[in-house]
Amino acid sequence: MPELPEVETLCRQLQEKVTGRKIRAVTIYDSKLDGIEEIRESIIMEVRRSGKTILIYLDDGRSIAIHLRMTGRLFLHQQKTRLPHTRWRLSLASGNVDLVDPRRFATVKITKIEIDHRQNDLISGFDENQFLALHAGRKVNIKTLLMDSNAIAGIGNIYACEILHRAGISPLKQASALKKTQWKEIFRRGRSILKKGIEKRGTSISDWRDLYGCPGENQNELTAYGREGRSCGVCGGVITRIKQGSRSTFYCPACQK
DNA sequence: AGAACCGCCTGCTTGC
DNA sequence: TGCAAGCAGGCGGTTC
Fold it and tell me: Residue A139: which nucleotide is closest by CA–C1'?
């Protein structure tokens, strides 16, 4: 599942490869995406990330906002053929950018609105004090709060589990019960884990591939997610799986208090 | 108003 | 072996 490091990886690769290119054609292969505004002949000025959304800015002030949701991928290639589950294609002189998405949750929108660049996430100008003022008193468990994209962007199930494991904080803990030092630990560990994820070009547990179809390497860095029954690298306890909401949470009951 | 829950989707895994 | 049920989960919308 593409989270912040995966989307950042794609944005960096796109920025390098498609900036300055003219859009020759757009093809929709899935009726769910019908009605996307005409953008032919526009020129790509810049590619940026906002949370988990990919923003491709055009020369006429509009932008393409792509959200990959669960299984979406972007794939840059020069072939005329397409992979199974290709939903949408941006044709440039230098190649095609295909949206491949088996589960069909991904969205593509054209917007004129000037998108707020304050990326409300840990690695881009995050305001800790503002976050704490708004959310530190909430009666919701910290795992769910970390995955609330309105509160803090970019963190999905995998990175939420990893951050709490490294911070030594139980995912069951109510946000309102956390001490200041624990919040600081979440922010500190969160930053380093997300940055490491970007360095390793994302976590390829199942679907994730970068713009060229290559898996990332961050799956080798995981210490909690997907490791049910294995020993905790911090304390030697046993990683346990529970359900929070309808999502799996992996954590170590021995060292995450 | 804030928290919990639902629905969108389909490929893969699990269980009988 | 085959088939159905279960599972994966971001996030907008709805319900409580």
Answer: B3
Give the C-alpha separation, A153 to A171, whole Å: 18
Write the pLDDT tens digit of every residue in A39-56: 999 999 999 999 999 999
Report the C-alpha gap between A208 and A217 in whole angstroms.
11
Six-digit token pair at A125? 């100008």
The residue lying closest to nucleotide B10, measuring its CA against C1', is A103
- CA–C1' gap, A31 and B11, in angstroms: 20
Sheet holding A86-92, edge to edge: A23-28, A86-92, A95-100, A73-77
Q: Measured in whole angstroms, how far is the alpha carbon of residue A238 from the centre of its chain?
A: 28
pTM for this entry: 0.95
How far apart CA A203 and CA A159 sit, in angstroms, is 10
